[in-house]
Amino acid sequence: MPDHSQAPSEPVVTRSFPDSSVGLVTPETLHFDQPLALSCGRMLEQFDLVIETYGELNKSASNAVLICHALSGDHHAAGYHSEDDRKPGWWDSAIGPGKAIDTNQFYVVSLNNLGGCRGSTGPVSINPETGKPWGPDFPVVTVEDWVESHALLADRLGITQWAAIVGGSLGGMQVLEWTIRFPDRVRHAAVIASAPKLSAQNIAFNEVARQAIMSDPQFLEGRYLESETLPASGLGLARMVGHITYLSDDAMKAKFDRDRKVTDFQFDYGAEFQVESYLRYQGESFTKRFDANTYLLMTRALDYYDPASRHNHNLVEALANAKARFLVISFTTDWRFSPERSEEIVNALHTAGKDVSYLKVDAPQGHDAFLMDIPRYTNALSAWMNRVATESKEYTV
Amino acid sequence: MPDHSQAPSEPVVTRSFPDSSVGLVTPETLHFDQPLALSCGRMLEQFDLVIETYGELNKSASNAVLICHALSGDHHAAGYHSEDDRKPGWWDSAIGPGKAIDTNQFYVVSLNNLGGCRGSTGPVSINPETGKPWGPDFPVVTVEDWVESHALLADRLGITQWAAIVGGSLGGMQVLEWTIRFPDRVRHAAVIASAPKLSAQNIAFNEVARQAIMSDPQFLEGRYLESETLPASGLGLARMVGHITYLSDDAMKAKFDRDRKVTDFQFDYGAEFQVESYLRYQGESFTKRFDANTYLLMTRALDYYDPASRHNHNLVEALANAKARFLVISFTTDWRFSPERSEEIVNALHTAGKDVSYLKVDAPQGHDAFLMDIPRYTNALSAWMNRVATESKEYTV
Question: Catalytic center at which residues (chains A, B) (predicted)?
Answer without folding.
Answer: 169, 334, 367
